[in-house]
Amino acid sequence: MSSLLSRIAATERPDLVVVIGYGDELPVFRHARALWQFYASHFPAIDLVFVRWSDQLKPGEVHHNGYDLLVGIGDRMQGATGYASSGVWSGSENAKWIYRQMLVQDYLLRTRSAPFYFYHTTLTSVVDFRALSTVLDQLPKTGCYAGPIARLNGPPEMAGLTFTSGASTILSHDALQHMRAHYDPQHPWAQFPNDIWAALMLPHFMRTPLPTFNFVRPRAPMADAAELSAIARHLLQQGHFHFRVKTVEPQDAAGRRQDVDPWIMLRLMETVLSSEHEPERTRALMAQYAQEASGGEQVPARRGESLFSGARTLPLSDSELFAT
After folding, report:
1. How far is CA 78 from the centre of its chain?
2. What pairing do the DSSP bridges indicate for beta strands 208-209 and 145-147?
3. Distance from chain centroid for Cα 183
4. Residue 282 domain-assigned?
5. How far apart are CA 174 and CA 236, in angstroms?
6. 227-234: long-range contacts (C-beta < 8 A, 24 or more apart)?
7. Which of 203, 261, 289, 293 lies at a CB distance of 3.0 to 4.6 Å from 211, suitable for a disulfide?
8. What is the phi/psi pair of residue 218, to 5°?
9. Are the CB atoms for 122 and 20 separated by under 8 Å?
C-alpha cells in the first residue's frame, strides 16, 4: 500500500488547474471541504484551487489565504436565493456564481504564465487524478471543451444547444480567454446556470463527450460501505475518473444530505487510494462513452439529433445499476 500511495503522490500535471467552488448554501459543503483537504494531500503535485466568497474583501478582489481562494462580493451581486430551500438556483444566484467564476478564471490567467487546462468540478465530487491525466492526454491543447454531454430540447431559441455538465467540465486556456473577453454581467445569458452560460459563450468550440458516474440513490448514514467500495472498484477498473455524489435534494426535508454524501465520498476516496490505475481502460471508456453519446464524434454547439439515440450500455448512476 505504501508504494501505491507513493506512486499516487507522484501524480503530476503541470498543465492542469482544478477549480472547486463552494459556499454556505448547504451544510454538506463544509463536511465535503474537510474530506477534500485530506484527499488532496495524497495528490500534492495537483494544482487544486478551492473557491469561496468573502465579505471581508472589496467587490471583485481575489485573495488566497492559504486554504481557499477568496472572492469579494458587493451588494450588486446579492439577490434572491433559492437553492438552499428548493434545490434550484435562482437567476440572481446563477449570475453571482458566473461572476465569481469569471473573477477566478481571470485570476488564473493572470497568475499562470503557461497555457493550462481548467477543470471545474463540484465539492461533492471525487476525482481520480491519475485517470484525469490520461483523459487530458487525449484532448486537444486548444479549442477544448469537454465533459459529460447533454442537449437542450427547448425553449425554441435554445433547442439543440449542447453543453457539458458543470460538475465535470474541462476547458483549454483559450476557452477561458474567450469567455473573459466576451463576458457581460448584464447580458440575459448571465442569469442561466453556469454550464448553459458557458455553452452559449463557446459557440465555435466543439464539445468532446466524457464519461461520469453519479451516486444519487438514497442511502442511510454510514450505510452500504462494502457495496459502495465494490461499485467504486468496478468503476475504477472500467476507467472512470469522475464521481459525483448527490443523494438528497435540499427541498427533501426527510433527508439530510450532510449525513449521507460525505460517507459515500469517503468510501470513494478510500477506493481510489487503494486501486491501481490502468490508462488503457480509461481510453477505452472514453471511446465507448463518445460512441454511445454521439457516434464517436465531437459534438457541435447546436445539434439537431438527440444524443444517446441508440442503445446505451454504460450506466451513468447507481440508480441505473440497481434498476430492474
Report:
1. 24
2. parallel
3. 21
4. no
5. 31
6. 228/264, 228/267, 228/268, 229/267, 229/270, 229/271, 231/318, 231/321, 232/267, 232/268, 232/271, 232/272, 233/271, 233/275
7. 289
8. -60, 135
9. yes
Query: How many Cα atoms are found within 13 Å in the side-chain-facing hemisphere of 306?
Result: 6
The single residue listed with the C-alpha cell 453519479 is: 214
Tell me whether residue 60 is in a domain: yes
Whole-angstrom CA distances from 266 to 47, 230, 286 are 21, 13, 25
The reply to whether omega before 155 is within 30° of 0 (cis) is yes
Domain count, the chain: 1
Q: What confidence tens digit (pLDDT) does each residue in 171-226 have? A: 999 999 999 999 999 999 999 999 999 999 999 999 999 999 999 999 999 999 99
Sign of CA dihedral 122, 26, 32, 180: positive
Residue 11 lies in a domain: yes
8 Å CB contact between 209 and 316: no
> Residue 277: inside a domain, yes or no?
no
Look up the CATH number of the domain holding residue 43: 3.90.550
Q: Which residues pair with 149 in a beta bridge?
A: 164
Q: Which helix (H) or strand (E) holds 173?
A: helix 173-182
Q: What pTM was estimated for this model as a whole?
A: 0.94
**pLDDT value at residue 73:** 83
Q: Give one word for 222, left, alpha or beta, with left for phi > 0 and alpha for psi -120 to 50.
A: left
User: Cα(187)–Cα(152) distance, rounded to whole angstroms?
Assistant: 20
